[in-house]
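To the wet lab folks,

You asked to see what we're planning to order before we commit. Fair enough. Below is the target structure as tokens, and below that is the sequence we designed to fit it. If anything looks off to you, flag it before the synthesis order goes out.
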């Protein structure tokens, strides 16, 4: 057959696909069948229907195999051989190209989407069906990674811990409940940021926080220099009992909000501008002096606000004792608040989680990526700053 005849035959074949319901899928199936015919002919040593002494084996019918691709599902007649096994080359290649589909299924699983919804997602991509067992199989590796991250051994010492809680709606025993998700972020001795825990609890209490800290200790944590959090009484008590000798810094941002509750809307902005300067002073002595001046000025106008300031001032100034570390990083839980906002941005997509495991899966996979980004970049606190601070703490002790 001449080249022109081959071209005409090919054009005629391609035009025939236009009338099909899915032209691209039909074209792909035709190409794969041609590929198989070429491969089998080379393996047998002779074209189909021809005789040759170079033959190495014989064809032995076909077997039907479903082949899922990103274009859709095809049913191929794969040739069988009397001797030896034949596996089309693109079946192996498909395993690599199909990683995109697997990633999408994993993403759906991470977001707490049910297997029924995942089946619909697969259908929309042209995959006829994907069973619950297949989904579970695909995601075993993902769940193992999450479990390993949440239970990994920790270092003995963490100079800084930030602790906070956020609330999420999670379905449990057929009811939607609001769970307190306790998050702990820390700085390791090398200055790198680590996510130490993410634990959904039914409430915030001394008992739940003690359970959280005991888990950290079971995983290796023995010493902490400074814990930073809001003024939750149960959390304060848990820190005192589980990390004896650890300093506690009351988050200045939360503290300011607590104080401003007692200030009228008309004066709130003006008072807030003066209030925040307490924690912007160069040292603890000047911070106390400024605070006393502020209390004298507004004691009669905002008595409840000033009372709140007096009661919590000491705990809000602990960061000044760690003067080798950037005060902006250890005077509040802002760094953890930003992380919580990112968590909420992702959890908002799901809304109500079908169970606690689905929430942990979503949050932990994000936190793994978050920690990897910090580990690949510069330290959050320099090693030199931590070394100098350690020496100062040892001198004081």
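Sequence we intend to order:
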């Amino acid at each position: 057959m001449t080249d022109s005849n081959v071209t005409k035959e090919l054009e005629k074949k391609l035009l025939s696909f236009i009338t099909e319901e899915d032209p691209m899928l039909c074209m792909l199936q035709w190409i794969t069948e041609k590929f198989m015919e070429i491969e089998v002919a080379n393996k047998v040593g002779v074209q189909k229907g021809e005789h040759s002494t170079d033959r190495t084996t014989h064809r032995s019918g076909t077997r039907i195999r479903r082949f899922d691709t990103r274009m859709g599902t095809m049913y191929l007649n794969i040739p069988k051989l009397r001797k030896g096994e034949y596996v089309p080359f693109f079946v192996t290649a498909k395993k690599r190209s199909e990683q995109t589909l697997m990633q999408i299924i994993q993403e759906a699983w991470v977001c707490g989407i049910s297997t029924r919804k995942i089946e619909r997602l697969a259908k929309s991509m042209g995959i006829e069906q994907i069973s619950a067992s297949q989904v579970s199989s695909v995601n075993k590796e993902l769940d193992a990674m999450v479990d390993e991250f949440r239970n990994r051994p920790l270092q003995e010492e963490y100079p800084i811990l930030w602790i906070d809680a956020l609330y999420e709606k999670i379905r449990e025993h057929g009811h939607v409940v609001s769970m307190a998700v306790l998050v702990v972020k820390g700085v390791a001795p090398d200055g790198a940021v680590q996510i130490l825990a993410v634990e959904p609890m039914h409430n915030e209490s001394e008992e739940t926080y003690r359970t959280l800290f005991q888990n950290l200790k079971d995983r290796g944590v023995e010493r902490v220099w400074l814990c930073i959090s809001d003024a939750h009484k149960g959390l304060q008590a848990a820190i005192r009992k589980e990390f004896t000798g650890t300093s506690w810094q009351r988050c200045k941002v939360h503290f300011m909000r607590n104080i401003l509750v007692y200030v009228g809307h008309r004066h709130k902005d003006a008072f807030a501008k003066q209030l925040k300067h307490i924690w912007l002073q160069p040292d603890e002595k000047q911070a106390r002096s400024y605070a006393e001046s502020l209390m004298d000025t507004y004691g009669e106008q905002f008595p409840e606000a000033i009372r709140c300031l007096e009661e919590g001032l000491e705990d809000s100034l602990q960061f000044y004792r760690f003067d080798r570390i950037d005060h902006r990083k250890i005077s509040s839980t802002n760094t953890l608040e930003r992380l919580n906002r990112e968590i909420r941005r992702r959890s908002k997509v799901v809304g109500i989680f079908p169970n606690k495991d689905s929430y942990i899966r979503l949050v932990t996979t994000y936190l793994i990526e978050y920690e990897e980004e910090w580990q690949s970049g510069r330290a959050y606190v320099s090693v030199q700053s931590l070394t100098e601070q350690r020496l100062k703490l040892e001198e004081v002790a």
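Structural context that might help your review: The chain has three domains: 21-97, 102-150, 153-396. Confidence is low (pLDDT under 50) at residues 93-100.

Thanks,
Computational group
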